[in-house]
Design brief:
The protein has 241 residues and is mainly alpha-helical. It is 65% helix and 7% strand.
């Protein structure tokens, strides 16, 4: 698609990092989309980055629209054909993919910390966190959201709800570590207490409990659409014959 320029890469480091994280979450090769190359500037080689059209899209969607370059890039993608825009028109889905991946990583870390703290039944411990945050067990939460058996309730949460659960998980982990808590029942109470605190904070700030937040499209479908978008972008990047 084009060259980002080392100076621009540095200036756009945060959206670039988010774009790379999205590729990782989708199991899309990062190096194929963010290729480090070299170009001549005033006769001297300088580092540069060649981005695919899909990578440019991810960077622009994660950027600050107040910056003219970002606004221009986003406008470019918005003007694409309707049949193509259906894959990428919802910027929130990019954030959902990123937050969902972070939750997966943090849940693994929390599982390790909980096991070290004496938790032998992680399902009960996990359920306690949901019970505190939603005032209902995980099973009831799935029924409320219409989540099929065998699927994760997290896959049907919007970006706001995912971010709140990510905060709950990381703060539960921090409290266990910082206070050196131990024991199945004690850690269950801790998970429930942290969940309850997050719930009260959400109500205080937005006036809405987490269970009232709307469900979102299955994130597995979102992942499939983004992968399809990458394939479509790739066709545009192919040299003309």
């Amino acid at each position: 698609m084009g060259m980002l320029g080392y100076e621009n890469f540095t200036a756009f480091q945060k959206p670039v990092n988010k774009a790379i994280a999205t590729c990782t979450a989708l199991n899309i090769p990062v190096q194929e989309n963010f290729e480090q190359v070299s170009r001549l500037i005033d006769g001297k080689p300088a580092p540069d980055f060649k981005l695919t059209r899909f990578a440019c899209y991810l960077v622009s969607i994660n950027g600050d629209v107040r910056k003219p370059e970002v606004a221009s890039a986003q406008a470019y993608f918005v003007t694409m054909a309707e049949a193509f825009r259906q894959y990428v028109q919802n910027a929130e889905n990019i954030e959902r993919v990123q937050n969902r991946e972070k939750i997966t990583e943090e849940e693994r870390s929390l599982s390790t910390v909980a096991a070290a703290g004496g938790v032998f039944d992680f399902a009960l411990f996990q359920n306690a966190g949901y019970r505190g945050m939603y005032c209902m067990n995980l099973r009831d939460l799935k029924l409320r959201k219409g989540v099929e058996v065998g699927k994760s309730v997290l896959d049907f949460m919007g970006s706001e709800e995912l971010a709140a659960n990510l905060f709950r998980i990381t703060q539960t982990q921090a409290k266990i570590r910082n206070e050196r808590l131990h024991g199945q029942l004690r850690l269950e109470r801790t998970a429930e207490d942290v969940g309850g605190t997050v719930r009260l904070t959400m109500i205080e700030i937005s006036g809405r409990p987490p269970e009232s937040l709307p469900s979102a499209e299955d994130i597995q479908h979102v992942r499939s659409k983004l992968k399809q978008a990458r394939r479509e972008f790739g066709k545009l990047d192919e040299p003309s014959k």
